[in-house]
Write a structure and sequence with these properties.
288 residues, two-stranded antiparallel sheet, 11 helices, Branched-chain amino acid transport system permease protein, mainly alpha, ABC transporter involved in vitamin B12 uptake, BtuC
Length: 288
């Protein structure tokens, strides 16, 4: 029984990281109906920005993270305003092609500058610290921190969209950008602001991912796949659905790892395909 509980708990903690990966993707799709195929590479890019801040600029991690968040917001705003707004339309193909091109560029630039070697952040042993529970269950402090950040991010996003004037602008622009434009709101700035917020979420995911494991420039496509699966499992544009989708994916992978080390990733993909067949709209397809 304790073994089953341990598998479920470790799956939830792993799924919280996947939920953070997917939260920015869910926000971008919910507001702009844009599928960002460079999402995973943006996570990796911000990991290497954090590496530059901590290892080359010699900033302490507690000071580097706020700087990274500021860089991420400005970068996301600029990318959307100058590049992606030009291809944002009801036809998804132009944005898919452009973000795919950005993905290729980011991977090659990172490999050229940093080489293909994985890099990791020095955490002073925090990544290996854990707390003991009855039954021989140990919960890592870093995964617990990831779970807390994922829950808080989901709560804040839900509050932003449901309770604030900015959230109403996001929802109105998503529903009918032409009408919103007639009312004096600039969809270009609205979309850029949404992308900036999405990049803040990406920065948080990048930080926690870099603290957890070594990162290489070619990791982006795998991270995009996890984020995409979490969004689809949870329901496109639903923040709590995305959170639950990440948790479901993590639990499925953890069960697979317990059965056989080679089954973990595969079982997560099986869950994704099964839910896509049985319930294609996702677990919670609509954000209130």
């Amino acid at each position: 029984m304790s073994s089953l509980i341990n598998i479920l708990l470790q799956g939830v903690l792993l799924g919280a990281l996947y939920a953070l990966f997917a939260m920015g993707q869910s926000l971008v799709f919910g507001v702009m109906r844009l599928t960002n195929t460079a999402h995973g590479d943006f996570i990796v890019l911000l990991v290497f920005v954090l590496f530059v801040l901590t290892n080359l600029a010699h900033m302490p991690l507690w000071a580097a993270v706020p700087v990274l968040i500021g860089i991420a917001f400005c970068g996301g705003y600029a990318v959307q305003y100058t590049v992606l707004n030009r291809v944002s339309s009801r036809d998804p193909l132009p944005s898919l092609v452009v973000t795919f091109g950005l993905s290729i560029v980011i991977q090659n630039v990172l490999q050229e500058v940093f080489s293909a070697d994985p890099r990791s952040l020095a955490t002073g042993g925090f990544e290996s610290m854990s707390m003991a529970l009855p039954g021989g269950i140990a919960l890592g402090l870093l995964p617990l921190l990831t779970l807390v950040v994922a829950v808080v991010a989901t709560l804040l996003l839900q509050w932003l969209f449901a309770r604030t004037p900015l959230g109403r602008v996001f929802r109105a622009t998503s529903d009918d950008r032409e009408i919103v434009q007639l009312m004096g709101v600039s969809p270009r700035r609205t979309f850029a602001l949404a992308m900036g917020i999405a990049f803040v979420l990406i920065a948080l995911a990048a930080t926690l991912y870099a603290l957890r494991t070594a990162v290489s420039p070619s990791d982006g496509p795998a991270l995009l796949l996890y984020a995409f699966e979490a969004v689809i499992i949870g329901g496109m544009g639903s923040f709590w659905g995305t959170f639950l989708g990440g948790i479901a994916l993590g639990v499925a992978q953890q069960i697979g790892f317990h059965i056989d080390p080679g089954w973990g990733i595969w079982l997560g993909h099986v869950l994704f395909l099964a839910l896509l067949t049985i319930r294609p709209q996702g677990l919670l397809p609509k954000t209130a």
